[in-house]
């Protein structure tokens, strides 16, 4: 059974930093693309970043240069470092198996205050 659990969300001031973590189990993590999505209130899911099994990364235009995705295949963990966050980036952040939104965790809330 695929299981994904995000952590690390919380309150952060605009311009600040936060690190999100995703613990994965139930599949061959080291052979799987992983993706971070976010969903802002009243909006659909938005792809933030993804990372290949070997560590190649892709970023959405809005976060390029400020966010960094990484993974540790030995621990079945994925991370997202959020830097210089903006108030409009308040959202529920999800990690997902593969590049789609179907197999995802329950999410972790990030709230950016002015």
How would the blueprint of this fold be written?
Blueprint: E1 3-7, E2 10-13, E3 18-25, E4 34-39, E5 45-51, E6 57-59, E7 67-72, E8 77-82, E9 91-97, E10 108-113
Parallel strand pairs: 2-10
Antiparallel strand pairs: 1-3, 3-8, 4-5, 4-9, 5-6, 7-8, 9-10
Q: What features would you describe in this structure?
A:
By secondary structure, this protein is mostly beta strands. Helices cover 0% and strands 51% of the residues. It has no helices and 10 strands. It has strands at 3-7, 10-13, 18-25, 34-39, 45-51, 57-59, 67-72, 77-82, 91-97, 108-113. The strands form 2 sheets. The chain has a 6-stranded mixed beta sheet, with no helix packed on it. A 4-stranded antiparallel beta sheet has the order 1-3-8-7, with no helix packed on it. Strand 7 (67-72) and strand 8 (77-82) form a beta hairpin. It is globular. 32% of the residues are buried. The mean pLDDT is 97.
Write a brief structural summary.
With 114 residues, the chain is mainly β. It has no helices and 10 strands. The mean pLDDT is 97.
Q: Count the DSSP helices.
A: 0
Strand content: over 45%
State the order of secondary-structure elements, H for helix, E for strand: EEEEEEEEEE
End-to-end C-alpha gap: 40 Å
| Strands ordered across the widest β-sheet | 2-10-9-4-5-6
Strand count, sense and barrel status of the largest sheet are:
6 strands, mixed
Q: What is Rg?
A: 13 Å
**Mean model confidence by pLDDT:** 97
Task: Provide the structure class.
Answer: mainly beta
Query: Judging from the principal axes of the Cα atoms, what is the shape?
Result: globular
Task: Tell me roughly what share of residues is in helical segments.
Answer: under 10%
Counted beta strands: 10
List the uncertain runs: none
């Amino acid at each position: 059974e695929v299981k994904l659990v995000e952590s690390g969300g919380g309150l952060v001031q605009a311009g600040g930093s936060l690190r999100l973590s995703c613990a994965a189990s139930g599949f061959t993590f080291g052979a799987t693309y992983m993706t971070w999505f976010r969903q802002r209130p009243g909006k659909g899911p938005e792809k933030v970043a993804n990372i290949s099994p070997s560590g190649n990364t892709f970023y959405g235009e809005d976060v390029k240069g400020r966010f960094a995705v990484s993974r540790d295949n030995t621990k079945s963990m994925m991370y997202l470092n959020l830097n210089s966050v903006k108030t409009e980036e308040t959202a529920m952040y999800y990690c997902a198996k593969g590049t789609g939104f179907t197999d995802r965790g329950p999410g972790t809330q990030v709230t950016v205050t002015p």
